[in-house]
Structure formats: C-alpha cells, structure tokens
Amino acid sequence: MASRANHSVLLGCALVCAAALLCSDATLLGAAEGQSSEPVAASTFPIAIDARLAGDARQTRFVLDLDKAIQFRAFALADPYRVVVDIPQVSFRLAAGTGTAGRGLIKAFRYGLVMPGGSRIVFDLTGPAKIANSYVLEAANGQPPRLVLELEQVDRTGFVQALAAESRPELRPAIADGAATAVAAEAAVASKPAAPPDLRPVVVIDPGHGGIDNGTQSSGESEKNLVLGFGLALRDRIEKSGKYRVVMTRTDDTFIPLADRVRIARNQSAALFVSIHADALPRREGDAQGATIYTLSDRASDAEAERLAEAENKADAIGGVNLTEEPTDVADILIDLAQRETRTFSHRFARLLMGEMKSTVRMHKHPLKSAGFKVLKAPDVPSVLIELGYVSNKGDLEHLVSENWRSRTVGSMAQAIDAFFAKRLATAGPAN
Ligand SMILES: [Zn+2]
C-alpha cells in the first residue's frame, strides 16, 4: 500500500524531474492543459483529491483518490514506454508537483484535460511494463472511491505481446499538435524568437466527393460542386472571426479517398470535423426534402440513414481506390471504444447545429440521424455529416443553388460552431 510518507520523500526530486517533463512526450498531453490549469466550471465534474505511487521496479501501483467512482480506459504505448489512462473530465485538486517524481516503473506522470469532457493521465515508464490490473473501487471502509493501476515489469518481447493482445490504435487528443508546438516553442524561446504557436481550435470542413466521383446528380447539378461551393463559403465565414484555424479536405474538384479525409482531420488534430453532402432519393422511393444532420453509430437509426451511409461509403469504390485499409471487425470494435467520448461531442454539436439551422433552413422531418459513415470514423475528432438537402427535390435544389439560402445556412452553421467552442473554452479555462 502507498503511504503519504513515501509521497513526500519522492517530491524531493520534483525540481529535477520537472525540467525533464517539459521535454517529454507532449503529444499526449498538452502544456496548455497540464497540471497548472483545470476547468473553471468544474463543480459538476468528479474531483481527484490525491494521487500516490507505491511498489518497486518490478511492480508499481498508482492510486487516484476521487470523490466519486468514474469510468476509465487504460492502455500502454511503446517508444517511449508509456501508459495512458483516459477518464471523463475530472477536476484535479492535487498537490503542486504531483507526478513530477516517479517510483518503481513510473518515471513521472502528468494529467489534465485533453478535450471537453475528457481528461487523461499519462505515465512515463522507466522501461517496458504491462498493465497487470486496473480497476475503480467504490468508497468503502472510510476510503474514498479510487482508481487503481497496477504495473508489472516485462521484457520488450512481453511488452510487445501484451500490446498485440490489446492491438489498440494509438489515440491522439484533439489538441495534441498545437500543444506540442507550444512546448517546442517554449524550449526554443531562449535561443531565438519563435512565432507564437497557433493554438486556435482546428475546424476541418470536408466537401464530399470530387473529381471522378460526382456524388448525386440532378437537373445538371452535381453534388460535388454544390458542396464544394458551400464548404468554401462556410470556410470564409468562420475564418473571418479569427477564432479558428480552418482546414479544407479539398478546395477544388479533386477526388479524395474517405480514409484520407479522416486522416486529414486526425493529422491536423482537428477539434471538429464537418462533412458536407447533398442527398438524392431514387424516384421510386418518392420525395423527401430538407437538411439532415448525421452522427456516427454502428447501427443506422433508420432505413434511409442506412441507404445513405451505404451510398456515401461507396465514394472510394467510385473513385477506383483499392480498399486495402478496410478495417477488420476487431479494429471496428476498438475504434468504437475509443469513440465513446468523441461521440458525446459529436452529438452535442449535432444538437447545437439543429437548434441553429431549424430557424433558418428547411429541415428533414427526422433531422437528426446516425449511421456508419466511414468518413466520420476518426476516433478522437468530434464529427458530423450534413446532408444539406435533396437534389432530387425541386424546392431543395432551388435552395442549394441559391446564394441567399447558402448565406443563411452558412450563418447558422457558423453560430453553432461558435456555441460549440464557447462551451469548450468555458470548461477548459485556467483556475487557481
Ligand atoms: Zn455525398
């Protein structure tokens, strides 16, 4: 069992280790969200009261005392050896310097918010170790609820085997790249003046289809052109505020495979991914109209959503791309695990978008749906897909080609994006 006496002894080398920490893996946890900052409006979040280490170089235990039990997900990473614990957003009220000193297999650890609603603890290991045990205990015998992580020393082979058994994709928080840039800039500041890093949230706008893939077509209008025009107008509108860095998956009539669109969102550490499409209904299926907002799910919310996801997922086949990267069922399950928290944000944004759009834009009679869109499968990027309307419907098509309609719709989407990030910033601001 760990003791507070051990803990205070270990704090002795905190200053030495703090310098090393600055240079350690900041891609997993940003300096901006590190130990010194925590959410302002944190009263409703679980509170971490104390953290301690026990054990030796063969077996090391980490204990986090909380005011309520939480869910968590722990996994190991190699090169350098780390263990990552993802938890819901937690208000860390730990003593200053907690985590800068290690013990046993743990060199040091850091913690903080990695996205709205999501906190993370990253342990730097002294060598290969496996997660022998990890669990959350409810309050009992005068002890508060605790998150416990037990690490066991293994050799490199054992580590790789344990990792393969997990075969979990590496996760990257939404702010990773920006934070890494911030730390690099801090390190460089002594020798030469560096441009301030662009820490604005990245919004990726993804106009569907392009190039060889026209998308749906009606009355001489192609989905790929309509959504590109719309996407560029949306970019111009939200760039004007200066609050976001906007990245387009395409700015011209180019074919982009679905996996590349997802990759762009992940590589840019996007905080939001918005895919823009326009639907069409086969004539025999009657008429439908209005905009629909889709989020990702394993099972389509209805038959129409399923048909649409199937159609949109065919983009690669239409573009002639060999689907060698098609995820297996196992990979799908792992991605689903990682996606649980991301989905919360996707749904939040979808609801905000609906709230803004319904007052200015004609919506589908069931405007919020979900289905298995491949383009929404970045496990750590909140993502929605918007079907602006039906090119097969006369009224919708008139809207889709109207400058006035586009401007109003872009305006309501920009408002929803502002609302989404206003909430995010409110919960991510510094405190004490
Ligand atoms: Zn489409």
Give the SSE layout.
Layout: H1 4-10, H2 14-23, E1 47-55, E2 59-66, E3 73-77, E4 82-88, E5 91-92, E6 106-115, E7 118-125, E8 129-137, E9 146-153, H3 156-166, H4 176-188, E10 202-207, E11 217-218, E12 221-222, H5 223-240, E13 245-248, H6 258-267, E14 272-279, E15 291-296, H7 303-313, H8 315-319, H9 329-357, E16 363-371, E17 383-390, H10 394-400, H11 403-428
Helix pairs in contact: 5-11, 9-11
The structure holds zinc ion (ZN).
The site of zinc ion has 6 residues, from loops.
Enumerate the spans where pLDDT stays under 50 for 5 or more consecutive residues.
1-27, 30-42, 167-192, 321-331
Order of helices and strands: HHEEEEEEEEEHHEEEHEHEEHHHEEHH
Bound molecules: zinc ion
Terminus-to-terminus distance: 31 Å
Task: Please sum up the structure shown.
The protein is an alpha/beta fold and 432 residues long.
Task: Give your account of this protein's structure.
With 432 residues, the chain is of the alpha/beta class. Helix content is 34%, strand content 26%. It has helices at 4-10, 14-23, 156-166, 176-188, 223-240, 258-267, 303-313, 315-319, 329-357, 394-400, 403-428; strands spanning 47-55, 59-66, 73-77, 82-88, 91-92, 106-115, 118-125, 129-137, 146-153, 202-207, 217-218, 221-222, 245-248, 272-279, 291-296, 363-371, 383-390. The strands form 4 sheets. A 6-stranded mixed beta sheet has the order 13-10-14-17-15-16, sandwiched between helices. A hairpin with a 4-residue loop joins strand 3 and strand 4 (82-88). The longest helix has 29 residues, at 329-357. Mean pLDDT is 79; it is low at 1-27, 30-42, 167-192 and 321-331. Bound molecules: zinc ion.
